[in-house]
Prior knowledge:
The protein is of the alpha+beta class. 44% of the residues lie in helices and 21% in strands.
Amino acid sequence: MGETRASTRPxxxxxxxxxxxxxxxxxxxxxxxxxxARGADAPVGFDASLGIERARSGVELWNHMSxxxxxxxxxxxxxRDGGDEIYVALALEGDxxxxxxxxxxxxxxxxxYVADFARPLSACWSxxxxxxxxxxxxRAERALAGRGPGARLRNLAQTGAAALLAAxxxxxxxxxxxxxxxxxxxxxxxxADLALYALAESPQAERLEARDVDVLHHQALRLIExxxxxxxxxxxxxxELLCVSRSRLFExxxxxxHGLEASLWRARLExxxxxxxxxxxxxxxxxxxxxxxxxxxxxxxxxxRRRYGMRPQERRAQGK
Length: 320
């Protein structure tokens, strides 16, 4: 988003040494690839800092913070500079709301998210700090080659490669200043490889605007249906995938016919009901129960009878 990758020299910049009236303009000039705007009631001064570590391969690590600001990258700017970067960011402080391709994304502190600079986007940053890997598009396209959702705007669930990436980005931000150039190059390239693997393979966090309770409820039901067969899947994991708090998630179900926990067990029972009819007597009931997220066959039988007014054996005898 800032100055060109013409060299591998690190960048260090901050506004605090400038007169307050010049701080925002100076920052806007540095971040020349995006338009910045502030509310009419914003204070005169603008506190911001930026550090960029660069590898010979073109991979960069950005460590930046600033006061609240609105960000915009329009179609004209995308055409002018080519949008040759994939932006993978770890939000450390504050709250970021991004919109791209008519999709809204909230990334609170702790989120790992991706955006594509080839397409217009807008964002609203509260006072924030984040680390970001900026990866040349050519490298990303070679690595992804049609695998996964690529650089589509989304939060990444921090499991597997994404979890390792978040940890390495934090460590690199702390130690980069002390690393010899060759080791810094290798570490940045390794982080880029982890990021691209995560984009291709890591499950994505559900993308939603959390203010829309109906959307939250709908997305939660979709995820419950997708994951209910996993006996370890529960409300904590669901909230993590949706990037909302558990209290927010429970609130979305509060005025519904079925609460959150009830919706999860209902989905498991409906799955079991369908499988019992499909398999008939070819599979033991305990096996069907386990395949639907029930670890206790006796408990499954009791819940099934309360829900359907018959024993699982009776449903199995009915067939399809």
